[in-house]
Amino acid sequence: MVTERTGADILIETLADLGVEVVFGYPGGAVLPIYDALFRQKKIRHILVRQEGGAAHAAEGYARSTGKPGVVLVTSGPGATNAVTGIADALMDSIPMVVITGQVPTALIGSDAFQEADTIGITRHCTKHNYLVKDPAKLADIVHEAFHIATSGRPGPVLIDLPKDVQVATATYRKPAASGAPRQHKSYRPQVKPDAALIEAAVEMIAAAERPILYTGGGIINSGPGASQMLRELARITGAPVTSTLMGLGAFPASSGQWLGMLGMHGTYEANMAMNRADLIVALGARFDDRVTGRLDAFSPKSKKIHIDIDRSSLNKTVRVDLPIVGDVGRAMEDIIKLWKGRAHAPANLQPWFAQIDEWRAKKSLSFPESREEIMPQHAIRRLYEATHARKPIISTEVGQHQMWAAQHFDFEQPNKWLTSGGLGTMGYGLPAAIGAQIGNPDALVIDIAGEASILMNIQEMSTATQYRLPVKVFILNNEYMGMVRQWQDLTYSGRHSESYSEALPDFVKLAEAYGWKGLRIENVDALDDGISEMLAYDGPVMVDCRVAKLANCFPMIPSGAAHTEMILQANEVSGEMDDEAKALV
Amino acid sequence: MHIKTEAIERHTLAVTVENEPGILARIAGMFSARGYNIESLTVADVTEDASISRITIVTKGPPAVIEQVVAQLDRLVPVHKVIDLTELGPHVERELALVKVAGAGDHRIEALRLAEVYRARVVDATISSFVFEVTGGTEKIDKFLELMREVGLVEVARTGVAAIARGRQVI
Predict the structure, then answer these.
(1) Fold for domain B91-164?
(2) Span B9-88: which CATH code?
(3) Which domain holds residue A526?
(4) What is the dihedral of CA B115, B120, B126, B127, to 10 degrees?
(5) DSSP letter string over A201-215?
(6) Is the peptide bond before A556 cis (omega within 30 degrees of 0)?
(7) Cut 0.80: pTM above it
(8) What is the distance between the alpha carbons of residues A93 and A422, in angstroms, rounded to a whole number?
(9) For the purposes of burial, counting CB atoms within 10 Å of the CB of A95, is it exposed (0-12), middle (13-18) or buried (19 or more)?
(10) What DSSP letter does each residue of B89-107 carry, written as one string?
């Protein structure tokens, strides 16, 4: 006879069967039965965060750096609503995540009970899918289905809302089939294999191109390390230059001669000009985001476009393409490579194209004014890169100028090393994401490149790092401004700095010490390298308050609503006030 | 600054979905979240075991937006199939309206006469009112209502559009 078990026990057992090693969470009334089940087992490690938003971002950092789904466990009501930003963030950046929320008992749902929120309703449009479980007998299947949906197709967050009575009620638990193959879902069948005829057309278009460019995105990271290898091989056999979105950094090595740097609003001149003048764009797991395209009617006007994406709704969404291909990007690249080699295509003569690219490179669009009086933030990141790149660090960021400077000046050679909130642009992402990454990669050097404003948005998570002895490093580029807000006010509103000054900042060194961290302050250029060394030498969490030039702005920049060719390279090209159309753009 | 507008088309979509709680909120919410239009939406389960519902959606937008609407519907987890009937070719669209007309004298006689022309049935009658049942395409019903306004229309209930492709083809 099979003994019945509680919903809470079934949940934990199912998670363990699915290979879950870590859960990021915070207890509360509506999840007490689950926390008791956690207490009585040893397979799953629980990481106690300090606010549920931190749990969601930590799970994102864990997922992005390990390739495994991140798991979050929070209580009903405020537990769930606090997690919502991180869930929305994971949806925008296609991060595989499973969120388990407690709910008030079934009989109380809809009665405005204590700590009740309509979690299913609230998260319906910021999850890939969500479930309210009313029967413990169905729980195991739903958890399996949730992991399948979160990790397959275009990955994303899936939420399971679990009323307290369902956690306590009993049912029999059946282990999933030994084969481990995911059950065929009734309606959800992502198309992984691309259409062979379309692949053939793509090969012909690439072979015929004189000015091709590979425009790569986060989809390549999501597809797995194999896809990054395929990209390298595709670039090698075609000889095409490669650019990447913010989310795709690391899929292609920055040390390659074919690398153009990031494209888009704060991308390099050569990447944006090459996109504009290309005769063929091959978009690989990227989605033509507004930060990438600039003004749409001026976006790469003369190119043919191939777009490969696993999400059909990404195709022809903002930019019409000549050859849309639905499928896994790694799989599609593999098919292209096989066919290319089978037909013994040689790389086209791209000499004239690279000669043109070299002229654009000569603009040195990432150069910045050197200073002895102040630490230039770009310089600080360069020095941080020089001091750490041999250790293949994992870098997370918050959101703002420091994030763009990190993307521009910190070079990546491998995927899964770059954790940043690209789509939603969530300040406060970086510290919890670094914590999640450190949990998943205990031996890695994990650094959160932060701004003094963003870091305060989830500063409480310092305590989490202390509790689990996580040696994360937080490197704050402190310019005493919400720098990107101030930069836009400089560009668009004649420098009227409305509420963008970081007033009443804490003493970050004392703050670090209060949390049991090491605190460091770097105040001048000469102390920069020593400060970085001191940070790296310390075996434990360190917060560095690096005082940088207060009014530096992030360039190059394509102003909102401008074309790729209208890039601002230096601050002195910036004028004061923009018209209403420009002001209305994000 | 003024908001710009584009040329729009009207499309009828047939969507089959898992008949699960919240599915309608998921679909209606997707439309509102992404700023798409719903002209009409009808839903009912259509399989013997009531496991699958068929939703007919009439939407309006520029061609690129219609294409996005289809793709966005298609990627919802509980959605089985999305068919753009307008794109597919000839199809039949019907809706039903219950139309209450109140009045006396010539208006009453005229209302009955017009109802006959539109093949509307009288499903309720009192000394001072009729309720007509009329079925047809959206345009026919709009036209019928326009005429009834002249002769004492006081209330309307419409079902919204149900649609199916012509011929043997099954979606």
Answers:
(1) Alpha-Beta Plaits (3.30.70)
(2) 3.30.70.260
(3) 377-554
(4) 10
(5) HHHHHHHH-SSEEEE
(6) yes
(7) yes
(8) 6
(9) buried
(10) --EEEEEEEEEEEE--THH
DSSP letter (8 states) at residue A346? P
Which helix (H) or strand (E) segment is A436 a member of? helix A430-440
Partner residue opposite B77 with nearest CB, options A128, A317, A581:
A128
Please write the tens of the pLDDT for every residue from A237-279.
999 999 999 999 999 999 999 999 999 999 999 999 999 999 9
Contact (CB, 8 A) for A360 and A270: yes
A258 and A140 housed in the same domain: no
State whether A125 and B29 contact (CB < 8 Å).
yes
Going by C-alpha positions, the residue among B13, B166, B169, B171 that lies closest to residue B90 is: B166
Residue A209's nearest CA partner among A274, A140, A290 is: A274
CA B120 to chain centre: 18
ipTM confidence: 0.90
SS (H, E, C) A557-575: ECCCCCCHHHCECCHHHCC
Beta strands, E only, A299-440:
304-309, 323-326, 394-397, 418-419
Contacts from A37-42 at CB under 8 Å and sequence distance 24+? Answer: A37/A6, A37/A8, A37/A9, A37/A11, A37/A12, A38/A12, A41/A12, A41/A16
Q: Which of B77, B79, B80, B82 to substitute to test the interface with A, most A CBs within 10 Å?
A: B77
Q: Which among A129, A312, A315 has the least Cβ separation from residue B77?
A: A129
Please tell me the distance from the alpha carbon of residue A568 to that of residue A67, in angstroms, as a whole number: 37
Question: Are A187 and B71 in contact (CB < 8 Å)?
Answer: no
Q: Convert the pLDDT of each residue in A422-435 to its tens digit.
A: 999 999 999 999 99
